[in-house]
C-alpha cells in the first residue's frame, strides 16, 4: 500500500484512511500479522498520529483489528456468526461440532444454573469446559452444565478425568432424545477467567449465549458460551449451528 493523498478527499481523513487500511488488510496482511507501529504508518500515509488512531480504532470496532497484550495491533480472524435461530439443533459434541473438549469436573454450579436445571443448590453437576478456535486464535469459551440424572450410565472407569471425561459426558448426553433448545443472548464483560482464556483484557465486551437443551420435558443440559464481541456477530433465522464467515462477510454487519 502506498502513500495516499488524503487532503483532497471530502470525507473525514480518518474515514478515508480506514477504507484504505481495510483494503490493505485484505490484500497485504494475513490473520494474526502484526501491523507496523503508529509512527511508521502515520509517516507512510502522511497523516497525523491522531488521525491514524481514529482509523485504527474504527477498524478495531468493526472487528478487523485487535490489540493483543504484549504483542501490538494484529489482523483479527474472520468474524464468527453466532446463530440464534429456532430450529432444533443436535446435542453438543456431534460430528459437525467445532467446539473442542478441554476438561470436565463435578462441582456445585451457580445458583441460577441450579435453578434452571432443577437440581439442589448443593448438588454437584458435570461441568464440561470447551473452547472454540478460529484461524488459530481463541474466539469463544463454553461451560456446559450436565446433571448426573442426564447421564446415568456414565462410568468413571471409562472417563477418569480431563478431556476424556468431557467427551464421555457428551457421548452419554447424546443418548437422550433432544426435543428442542432455547437460546438467550446478552452483551457482557469478560471476567478474569474468560479474559485469560480468550486473550482479552478483563472487562472487554463479550457476547454470552445461554442455551437450554430440553429432553424428557426438562432442561437436560445448560450451555453458557462466551464469545469475543470483536470477532463475532449475531445471525437470526431458522437455521442452526455456528458458521465461520470468510472474505467480505467478516466485516461488521
UniProtKB/TrEMBL annotation:
* The keyword Transcription belongs to this UniProt entry's keyword annotation: yes
Top-level lineage group: Bacteria
CDD domains hit by this protein: WHTH_GntR
Where's the HTH gntR-type domain? 11-78
Keywords in alphabetical order, please.
DNA-binding, Transcription, Transcription regulation
Pfam families xref list:
GntR, UTRA
List the protein's name. GntR family transcriptional regulator
Q: Which organism is it from?
A: Streptomyces prasinus
